[in-house]
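Human: If only I could read C-alpha coordinates as easily as an amino acid sequence. Underneath my words sits a plain record pairing an amino acid chain with its C-alpha coordinates. Take your time, and here it is.
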Amino acid sequence: MKWNILALFTVLLTVVTCEIDYYGVLGVSKQASEKEIKSAYRNLSKKYHPDKNPGNEEAHQKFIEIGEAYEVLSDDEKRGVYDRYGADGLKNGGQGGRGGGGGGGFDPFGDFFGFGRHQQQQQRNQKPRGSDTEVAVDVSLKDFYLGETFQFTVEMQNLCGTCSGTGSKDNKTHTCSTCNGSGVRIVKRQLAPGMFQQIQTTCDQCHGKGKTIQHKCSTCNGQGVVRGKRQYDIFVEPGTSRDHVHVLSGESNHSPDHVSGDLKILVRESGKESYGYRRRGDNLYRTEALTLKEAVAGGWRRELMFFDDENITISRPSGKSVMSGEIEVIKGRGMPRPDHHAEEFGDLVIDYVVVMPGGVSNKAKYLRDEL
Protein backbone atom coordinates (compact mmCIF):
# COMPACT_ATOMS: atom_id res chain seq x y z
CA MET A 1 0.00 0.00 0.00
CA LYS A 2 2.82 2.34 0.91
CA TRP A 3 4.51 1.80 -2.45
CA ASN A 4 1.24 2.30 -4.35
CA ILE A 5 0.72 5.70 -2.72
CA LEU A 6 4.32 6.67 -3.46
CA ALA A 7 3.94 5.62 -7.10
CA LEU A 8 0.73 7.65 -7.46
CA PHE A 9 2.38 10.72 -5.93
CA THR A 10 5.32 10.32 -8.32
CA VAL A 11 2.94 10.16 -11.27
CA LEU A 12 1.20 13.36 -10.19
CA LEU A 13 4.45 15.25 -9.76
CA THR A 14 5.73 14.23 -13.18
CA VAL A 15 2.67 15.60 -14.95
CA VAL A 16 3.90 18.60 -16.91
CA THR A 17 2.58 21.08 -19.39
CA CYS A 18 4.45 21.95 -22.56
CA GLU A 19 4.83 25.68 -21.90
CA ILE A 20 5.69 27.76 -24.93
CA ASP A 21 9.25 29.13 -25.04
CA TYR A 22 8.88 32.69 -26.33
CA TYR A 23 12.62 33.08 -26.88
CA GLY A 24 12.64 29.84 -28.85
CA VAL A 25 9.65 30.97 -30.93
CA LEU A 26 11.57 34.06 -32.07
CA GLY A 27 14.86 32.17 -32.30
CA VAL A 28 16.74 34.54 -29.98
CA SER A 29 18.69 34.08 -26.77
CA LYS A 30 17.46 35.16 -23.33
CA GLN A 31 20.02 37.96 -23.47
CA ALA A 32 18.68 39.28 -26.79
CA SER A 33 18.43 43.05 -27.11
CA GLU A 34 15.24 44.92 -27.99
CA LYS A 35 16.59 45.46 -31.51
CA GLU A 36 17.32 41.74 -31.99
CA ILE A 37 13.85 40.79 -30.78
CA LYS A 38 12.19 43.31 -33.09
CA SER A 39 14.25 42.16 -36.07
CA ALA A 40 13.44 38.49 -35.42
CA TYR A 41 9.75 39.31 -35.10
CA ARG A 42 9.65 41.20 -38.40
CA ASN A 43 11.42 38.44 -40.31
CA LEU A 44 9.34 35.61 -38.86
CA SER A 45 6.00 37.42 -39.12
CA LYS A 46 6.66 38.01 -42.82
CA LYS A 47 7.64 34.36 -43.34
CA TYR A 48 4.59 32.90 -41.61
CA HIS A 49 2.06 35.60 -42.52
CA PRO A 50 -1.32 34.07 -43.54
CA ASP A 51 -1.16 35.99 -46.83
CA LYS A 52 1.95 34.02 -47.81
CA ASN A 53 0.62 30.72 -46.46
CA PRO A 54 -3.06 30.51 -47.45
CA GLY A 55 -4.77 27.43 -46.02
CA ASN A 56 -1.68 26.41 -44.04
CA GLU A 57 -2.98 25.93 -40.50
CA GLU A 58 0.46 25.12 -39.11
CA ALA A 59 1.83 28.42 -40.44
CA HIS A 60 -1.24 30.19 -39.07
CA GLN A 61 -0.63 28.83 -35.56
CA LYS A 62 3.06 29.70 -35.84
CA PHE A 63 2.12 33.25 -36.84
CA ILE A 64 -0.06 33.58 -33.73
CA GLU A 65 2.74 32.25 -31.50
CA ILE A 66 5.17 34.76 -33.00
CA GLY A 67 2.78 37.61 -32.21
CA GLU A 68 2.32 36.39 -28.63
CA ALA A 69 6.07 36.05 -28.13
CA TYR A 70 6.77 39.56 -29.42
CA GLU A 71 3.98 41.06 -27.31
CA VAL A 72 5.66 39.69 -24.17
CA LEU A 73 9.36 40.11 -25.00
CA SER A 74 9.00 43.64 -26.41
CA ASP A 75 7.52 44.85 -23.12
CA ASP A 76 10.14 45.22 -20.37
CA GLU A 77 7.67 44.59 -17.55
CA LYS A 78 6.07 41.53 -19.14
CA ARG A 79 9.47 40.17 -20.13
CA GLY A 80 10.69 40.50 -16.56
CA VAL A 81 7.70 38.56 -15.23
CA TYR A 82 8.13 35.91 -17.92
CA ASP A 83 11.84 35.51 -17.15
CA ARG A 84 11.08 34.97 -13.46
CA TYR A 85 7.89 32.93 -13.55
CA GLY A 86 7.31 31.80 -17.13
CA ALA A 87 4.08 32.18 -19.08
CA ASP A 88 1.98 31.26 -16.03
CA GLY A 89 3.35 34.31 -14.24
CA LEU A 90 1.82 36.55 -16.91
CA LYS A 91 -1.57 34.94 -16.39
CA ASN A 92 -1.43 35.17 -12.60
CA GLY A 93 -0.19 38.72 -12.09
CA GLY A 94 3.48 37.85 -11.72
CA GLN A 95 3.05 35.10 -9.11
CA GLY A 96 3.75 32.20 -11.43
CA GLY A 97 2.51 28.89 -10.12
CA ARG A 98 3.89 29.46 -6.64
CA GLY A 99 0.96 29.00 -4.33
CA GLY A 100 -1.21 31.89 -3.24
CA GLY A 101 -4.91 32.15 -3.86
CA GLY A 102 -4.67 32.93 -7.57
CA GLY A 103 -5.52 29.41 -8.68
CA GLY A 104 -3.46 29.84 -11.86
CA GLY A 105 -0.69 27.89 -13.51
CA PHE A 106 -0.51 24.13 -13.99
CA ASP A 107 -1.98 22.25 -11.03
CA PRO A 108 -0.80 18.63 -11.24
CA PHE A 109 -3.68 17.39 -9.07
CA GLY A 110 -6.42 19.48 -10.67
CA ASP A 111 -5.27 18.93 -14.26
CA PHE A 112 -4.59 15.23 -13.69
CA PHE A 113 -8.22 14.66 -12.66
CA GLY A 114 -9.70 17.28 -14.99
CA PHE A 115 -10.37 19.96 -12.36
CA GLY A 116 -8.38 22.63 -14.24
CA ARG A 117 -10.18 22.47 -17.57
CA HIS A 118 -12.66 25.24 -16.87
CA GLN A 119 -9.85 27.71 -16.26
CA GLN A 120 -7.99 26.56 -19.39
CA GLN A 121 -11.15 27.09 -21.43
CA GLN A 122 -11.45 30.64 -20.10
CA GLN A 123 -7.86 31.36 -21.14
CA ARG A 124 -8.49 30.02 -24.64
CA ASN A 125 -11.51 32.30 -24.99
CA GLN A 126 -9.19 35.28 -24.68
CA LYS A 127 -8.20 35.84 -28.28
CA PRO A 128 -4.64 36.95 -29.04
CA ARG A 129 -4.03 40.21 -30.86
CA GLY A 130 -3.18 39.93 -34.54
CA SER A 131 -0.29 41.71 -36.22
CA ASP A 132 -0.42 45.26 -37.58
CA THR A 133 -0.42 45.98 -41.31
CA GLU A 134 1.68 48.79 -42.79
CA VAL A 135 0.96 50.60 -46.06
CA ALA A 136 2.40 53.79 -47.60
CA VAL A 137 0.74 56.79 -49.25
CA ASP A 138 2.82 59.18 -51.37
CA VAL A 139 2.00 62.87 -50.87
CA SER A 140 3.42 65.82 -52.81
CA LEU A 141 5.07 68.73 -51.02
CA LYS A 142 2.22 70.94 -52.20
CA ASP A 143 -0.35 68.69 -50.51
CA PHE A 144 1.76 68.59 -47.35
CA TYR A 145 1.56 72.41 -47.38
CA LEU A 146 -2.14 72.82 -48.19
CA GLY A 147 -3.55 69.65 -46.63
CA GLU A 148 -5.55 67.10 -48.58
CA THR A 149 -7.84 64.07 -48.23
CA PHE A 150 -6.49 60.93 -49.86
CA GLN A 151 -8.40 57.83 -50.86
CA PHE A 152 -6.58 54.53 -51.18
CA THR A 153 -7.40 50.85 -51.52
CA VAL A 154 -5.66 47.98 -49.78
CA GLU A 155 -6.21 44.23 -50.03
CA MET A 156 -6.81 42.68 -46.61
CA GLN A 157 -8.11 39.53 -44.95
CA ASN A 158 -11.80 39.88 -44.05
CA LEU A 159 -14.34 37.71 -42.26
CA CYS A 160 -16.30 35.63 -44.73
CA GLY A 161 -19.68 37.26 -45.32
CA THR A 162 -21.30 33.98 -46.35
CA CYS A 163 -20.65 32.13 -43.08
CA SER A 164 -20.06 35.16 -40.80
CA GLY A 165 -16.56 33.93 -40.06
CA THR A 166 -17.59 30.52 -38.73
CA GLY A 167 -16.24 28.58 -41.71
CA SER A 168 -19.41 26.48 -41.65
CA LYS A 169 -21.95 26.26 -44.46
CA ASP A 170 -24.84 26.11 -41.97
CA ASN A 171 -23.15 28.52 -39.52
CA LYS A 172 -22.90 25.69 -37.00
CA THR A 173 -19.84 24.40 -35.19
CA HIS A 174 -19.62 21.24 -33.13
CA THR A 175 -17.68 20.27 -30.05
CA CYS A 176 -14.54 18.41 -31.04
CA SER A 177 -14.98 14.72 -30.24
CA THR A 178 -11.23 14.15 -29.90
CA CYS A 179 -10.58 16.68 -27.11
CA ASN A 180 -14.18 17.09 -25.93
CA GLY A 181 -14.02 20.82 -26.58
CA SER A 182 -10.94 21.49 -24.47
CA GLY A 183 -8.68 22.20 -27.46
CA VAL A 184 -5.91 20.06 -25.98
CA ARG A 185 -4.98 16.39 -25.75
CA ILE A 186 -3.19 14.67 -22.88
CA VAL A 187 -0.48 12.31 -24.06
CA LYS A 188 0.63 9.75 -21.45
CA ARG A 189 4.17 8.42 -21.51
CA GLN A 190 5.77 5.80 -19.29
CA LEU A 191 9.14 6.93 -17.99
CA ALA A 192 9.83 3.87 -15.86
CA PRO A 193 7.86 1.10 -14.17
CA GLY A 194 5.24 2.82 -12.07
CA MET A 195 6.27 6.30 -13.31
CA PHE A 196 4.31 8.16 -15.96
CA GLN A 197 4.41 11.57 -17.54
CA GLN A 198 1.43 13.38 -19.03
CA ILE A 199 2.09 16.07 -21.61
CA GLN A 200 -0.54 18.55 -22.73
CA THR A 201 -0.51 19.27 -26.47
CA THR A 202 -2.76 21.14 -28.91
CA CYS A 203 -5.50 18.94 -30.34
CA ASP A 204 -4.57 18.11 -33.94
CA GLN A 205 -8.21 17.50 -34.86
CA CYS A 206 -9.55 20.98 -34.09
CA HIS A 207 -6.17 22.77 -33.96
CA GLY A 208 -6.83 24.00 -30.44
CA LYS A 209 -10.21 25.61 -31.17
CA GLY A 210 -12.30 22.98 -29.40
CA LYS A 211 -14.80 23.11 -32.27
CA THR A 212 -15.07 21.32 -35.60
CA ILE A 213 -17.02 21.96 -38.79
CA GLN A 214 -19.07 19.25 -40.49
CA HIS A 215 -20.07 21.23 -43.58
CA LYS A 216 -17.43 23.66 -44.81
CA CYS A 217 -18.44 26.99 -46.31
CA SER A 218 -17.79 26.88 -50.05
CA THR A 219 -16.85 30.58 -50.18
CA CYS A 220 -13.95 30.44 -47.72
CA ASN A 221 -13.35 26.66 -47.78
CA GLY A 222 -13.94 26.47 -44.05
CA GLN A 223 -11.33 29.09 -43.16
CA GLY A 224 -13.80 31.75 -42.05
CA VAL A 225 -11.86 34.46 -43.90
CA VAL A 226 -11.50 35.70 -47.47
CA ARG A 227 -9.24 38.21 -49.22
CA GLY A 228 -10.86 41.42 -50.34
CA LYS A 229 -10.22 45.11 -51.03
CA ARG A 230 -11.01 47.83 -48.54
CA GLN A 231 -11.20 51.54 -49.32
CA TYR A 232 -10.12 54.22 -46.87
CA ASP A 233 -10.00 58.02 -46.73
CA ILE A 234 -7.37 59.82 -44.65
CA PHE A 235 -6.87 63.54 -44.19
CA VAL A 236 -3.31 64.86 -44.25
CA GLU A 237 -3.35 68.04 -42.18
CA PRO A 238 -1.43 71.08 -43.49
CA GLY A 239 2.14 70.90 -42.25
CA THR A 240 1.99 67.20 -41.34
CA SER A 241 5.50 65.93 -40.77
CA ARG A 242 7.21 63.82 -43.42
CA ASP A 243 6.96 60.06 -42.69
CA HIS A 244 4.06 60.62 -40.31
CA VAL A 245 2.23 57.39 -39.41
CA HIS A 246 -1.58 57.53 -39.40
CA VAL A 247 -3.11 54.69 -37.33
CA LEU A 248 -6.53 53.11 -37.93
CA SER A 249 -7.21 50.95 -34.86
CA GLY A 250 -8.50 47.43 -35.45
CA GLU A 251 -8.33 47.72 -39.24
CA SER A 252 -5.62 45.14 -39.89
CA ASN A 253 -6.44 41.62 -41.12
CA HIS A 254 -9.65 40.25 -39.62
CA SER A 255 -9.89 36.72 -38.27
CA PRO A 256 -12.29 34.79 -36.01
CA ASP A 257 -9.23 33.52 -34.13
CA HIS A 258 -7.68 36.82 -33.05
CA VAL A 259 -8.38 40.46 -32.29
CA SER A 260 -7.49 42.58 -35.30
CA GLY A 261 -4.33 44.66 -35.12
CA ASP A 262 -3.99 48.19 -36.49
CA LEU A 263 -3.62 49.50 -40.02
CA LYS A 264 -0.67 51.91 -40.09
CA ILE A 265 -0.40 54.34 -43.02
CA LEU A 266 3.03 55.84 -43.62
CA VAL A 267 2.66 59.28 -45.23
CA ARG A 268 5.70 59.70 -47.50
CA GLU A 269 6.80 62.74 -49.46
CA SER A 270 6.95 62.25 -53.21
CA GLY A 271 8.95 64.32 -55.70
CA LYS A 272 5.87 65.79 -57.37
CA GLU A 273 4.69 69.42 -57.21
CA SER A 274 7.66 70.67 -55.24
CA TYR A 275 8.11 73.78 -57.45
CA GLY A 276 11.82 73.74 -56.67
CA TYR A 277 11.38 73.88 -52.89
CA ARG A 278 12.64 71.35 -50.39
CA ARG A 279 11.62 70.88 -46.81
CA ARG A 280 13.59 70.70 -43.58
CA GLY A 281 11.34 70.68 -40.55
CA ASP A 282 9.08 73.74 -40.64
CA ASN A 283 11.30 75.63 -43.10
CA LEU A 284 11.40 75.55 -46.88
CA TYR A 285 14.63 75.89 -48.85
CA ARG A 286 15.26 76.94 -52.43
CA THR A 287 18.40 77.44 -54.53
CA GLU A 288 18.14 80.38 -56.95
CA ALA A 289 20.66 80.85 -59.80
CA LEU A 290 21.76 84.34 -60.92
CA THR A 291 23.82 85.40 -63.92
CA LEU A 292 27.06 87.23 -63.24
CA LYS A 293 25.47 90.46 -64.50
CA GLU A 294 22.48 90.09 -62.16
CA ALA A 295 24.73 89.31 -59.22
CA VAL A 296 27.02 92.30 -59.79
CA ALA A 297 24.69 95.00 -61.15
CA GLY A 298 21.36 94.14 -59.54
CA GLY A 299 18.24 95.55 -61.19
CA TRP A 300 16.30 92.27 -61.43
CA ARG A 301 12.94 90.97 -60.19
CA ARG A 302 11.47 87.45 -60.17
CA GLU A 303 8.08 85.93 -59.33
CA LEU A 304 8.38 82.48 -57.75
CA MET A 305 5.45 80.11 -58.08
CA PHE A 306 4.22 78.98 -54.65
CA PHE A 307 1.83 76.35 -53.30
CA ASP A 308 -0.97 78.73 -52.26
CA ASP A 309 -1.08 80.47 -55.69
CA GLU A 310 0.28 83.64 -54.09
CA ASN A 311 3.61 84.10 -55.83
CA ILE A 312 6.70 85.10 -53.91
CA THR A 313 8.63 88.11 -55.21
CA ILE A 314 12.41 88.34 -54.92
CA SER A 315 14.42 91.26 -56.34
CA ARG A 316 17.45 93.49 -56.09
CA PRO A 317 17.58 97.20 -57.04
CA SER A 318 20.18 98.47 -59.49
CA GLY A 319 23.61 98.68 -57.92
CA LYS A 320 22.77 96.09 -55.25
CA SER A 321 25.06 93.09 -55.70
CA VAL A 322 24.56 89.50 -54.50
CA MET A 323 27.38 87.22 -53.47
CA SER A 324 27.37 83.55 -54.46
CA GLY A 325 26.27 81.59 -51.39
CA GLU A 326 24.36 84.54 -49.95
CA ILE A 327 21.27 83.55 -47.95
CA GLU A 328 17.96 85.41 -47.89
CA VAL A 329 15.31 84.49 -45.29
CA ILE A 330 11.66 85.33 -45.97
CA LYS A 331 9.77 85.08 -42.69
CA GLY A 332 6.48 83.20 -42.51
CA ARG A 333 6.65 81.61 -45.97
CA GLY A 334 7.69 78.15 -44.84
CA MET A 335 5.54 75.14 -43.85
CA PRO A 336 2.45 75.44 -41.62
CA ARG A 337 2.94 74.41 -38.00
CA PRO A 338 0.01 72.11 -37.15
CA ASP A 339 0.89 71.83 -33.44
CA HIS A 340 0.24 75.53 -32.81
CA HIS A 341 -3.21 76.93 -32.02
CA ALA A 342 -2.79 80.04 -34.16
CA GLU A 343 -1.76 79.89 -37.80
CA GLU A 344 2.01 79.86 -37.72
CA PHE A 345 4.50 79.11 -40.46
CA GLY A 346 8.18 78.43 -40.76
CA ASP A 347 10.50 80.46 -42.98
CA LEU A 348 11.60 80.29 -46.60
CA VAL A 349 15.39 80.22 -47.00
CA ILE A 350 16.80 81.15 -50.42
CA ASP A 351 20.38 80.24 -51.29
CA TYR A 352 21.75 82.31 -54.20
CA VAL A 353 24.24 80.77 -56.65
CA VAL A 354 26.10 82.83 -59.27
CA VAL A 355 26.52 81.08 -62.62
CA MET A 356 29.79 82.13 -64.24
CA PRO A 357 29.99 82.79 -68.02
CA GLY A 358 31.18 79.90 -70.16
CA GLY A 359 30.14 77.12 -67.81
CA VAL A 360 27.86 75.91 -65.09
CA SER A 361 29.14 75.43 -61.60
CA ASN A 362 28.78 72.04 -59.95
CA LYS A 363 26.35 73.52 -57.48
CA ALA A 364 24.16 74.98 -60.21
CA LYS A 365 23.85 71.59 -61.88
CA TYR A 366 21.74 70.42 -58.97
CA LEU A 367 19.16 73.20 -58.93
CA ARG A 368 16.30 70.83 -58.46
CA ASP A 369 14.13 69.71 -55.62
CA GLU A 370 15.80 67.37 -53.14
CA LEU A 371 14.06 65.48 -50.35
